[in-house]
Amino acid sequence: MFKKFQLFISLCILITLSGQQAWSAITQAEVDRLGNDLTPIGGEKAGNAEGTIPAWEGGITTPPAGYVKGMHHPDPYAGDSAQFTITASNLNQHKDQLSIGHQALLNAYDTYKMAVYPTRRSASYPQRVYDATKQIALTSEVIGDGAGVSGAILGIPFPIPKSGHEVIWNHLVRYRGTIAARHISQAAPTRNGRFTLVDFEDEFLFNYTLEGMKAEELDNTLLYFKQEVKAPARLAGTILLAHETMDQITEPRRAWVYNTGQRRVRRAPNVAYDNPGTAADGVRTSDQFDMFNGALDRYNWKLLGKREMYMPYNSYKLHSDQVKVKEILTPLHINQDLARYELHRVWVVDATLKEGKRHLYSRRTFYVDEDSWQILAVDQYDGRGELWRISEGHCINYYEEPTFWSTLEVHTDLFSGRYLAIGLDNQRKMYEFGIDREVSDYTPSALRRSGIR
Length: 453
Fold this sequence. Notes:
Elements: H1 2-23, H2 28-31, E1 84-86, H3 100-108, E2 114-116, H4 127-136, E3 141-143, E4 148-150, H5 164-173, E5 179-187, E6 198-205, E7 221-231, E8 239-245, E9 254-259, E10 264-267, E11 299-312, H6 316-319, H7 325-328, E12 341-353, E13 363-369, E14 375-381, E15 387-398, E16 403-413, E17 418-424, E18 432-433, H8 444-450
């Protein structure tokens, strides 16, 4: 009997170990491909056979002539012309390269169109990110049924992903500078196009990418985030502070809110999952911010592979200070004359709600850029399994850093005929990378001191 028990325990250990190995099943031979036939963070370096996707040659490594730090970013591809435009009338010709969400938008709105431009593989990161990616590729592993990551710092932990969890974690920890501030606006236009701007001042301290940081020193903290509402007056002065954890099941996100009416700081336990986004008029959930953020525990994450698809990319027109916000915010959807789409290879991850878990979205399909690990689009389904909301991340290369990040996120609600646009910075001060902040600036006591109303 005792021998049988020993055999049972041994089998359990073997099963457990094999399960752990499955999370981190990358070989040295695969790691050696990084920087050779693969980009330093895992994309396919070569173009496609048809020549419609070019080879990656390092992305943008030098800002355009005349650029001065602090300017809105001049479009390095301003001379490009649209190759063709996709509408409802020619949708079927391009169906294989369109997401379900984009097909739905084309069918839903006569005014919706997608102008397709030459593909420019502009994404780039600092060399230290590339070096770190190669160093951690063998040590990084997903832990706790996908709830966290260990053995990773600075770089992309899973450059050759084997699971949906790994792809999404690459997005969550991707490089966005070290300490940054952004000055952005948000709007949720009504069906007839009326809107009120909500102005934010956001700050990020990316603990994971700090110079000299070591994995064992992270203290389970991925990043520190502070967001202050500056307008309208009825909301101004409210401040959210969040500490994003690497393992949100062992230790959930820590969050606090400074309330202007009460002049006090309180814990904010509900800034997560499908709770309403800040001042978003109910059009997006908390975990849709940055296309997806937070814990992965409520979904099963299935990696469907990689596809060539038309995605928002190099959206410098939507970022331009020569464009007014009112020109972008048109009824039903943003002004598609200002949007740019390109053919890119994306990882496709399908997330389905686990049995016994709850969320507004029963299913979500993510399209993740192979060159940056930025989520470019998401299809979200309601409890009946019907497509409900489509999200787009219109991105640019902030080439002074450099990093590839969204300049405008758009979340479109098919049922209400409304959408939320967040990231509008056309008439705002530019993103600031490398601002002077310390971890001590992102504590509840510091939040208390920064409250002014």
